[in-house]
Transmembrane protein (Collimonas arenae), 272 residues
Amino acid sequence: MNVALPALIVFLLLLPGFIARSRFKRAERASLDFSPFGQIVTEAVLWSCVFHLLWLTASGMLFGRALQPAVLLKILSADPTSQSRAVDAIATQFSWICAYFLSLYAGALIVPTGFRMLITRFRLDRFNAGWFAPLFRFHQAPWYYLLTGADFDEDNQPDFISVSAIVNVAGQAVLFIGILDDFFVDADGGLDRLILQQVMRRPLLADKPYDPADDDPTRFYGVEGDYFVLRYSEAITLNIEYIKLAKVETDETIDESDDGAQAIDAAAEIAG
């Protein structure tokens, strides 16, 4: 009990930090997190300190409850007598302590998720967003930035992302071109497959220098189907192109006097 109880208390105190860290970051790796152990612990401790500070402040301001450091130190000590007294003190406020930790864990789950949504919504993680961009940037999600256009501001956000890939088909290099619809990563964080639409293909041997005056669209052959799944492991090269549609501005303003004159002439013609 002398060793297990303090370890359990430390675990409960630091658990909100690990929850918040896992909810805030955007990582493409679905398996083990290979970040340095010291980095993981440091980030979790910092998150825990922030959440405990907020929750303790709110408890004192809203409910008049304050932290009792003496009780915490006694339950973390190795003295059985001190631990017993601390347990008795905690037992008198057990319902309040349970409510504190349950709400703390819920907050550690919800609040970082909301922050991540706000960062994504307002694009605060763009590489040129400002001095704070490295703080908000999701460094473990490189494919996310490359294949979603997240590094563009809202005004320059691409309307389409074109993907060109060379694939070895029966010993022959074939070029596939399509519009990116979605992408998936594997458990280790590597790109697994791309979902393309409006795909066209042509053998690379049929390639020739592009000439706008003599462009032959028959060099490409349409691929039947609604979605084309391209496995990244089968692609020899991959080219990404961001396409922004140009806005066409038309002046539809008609002078009211001209409009009125045209109406009078039309009425005269009908009357005649």
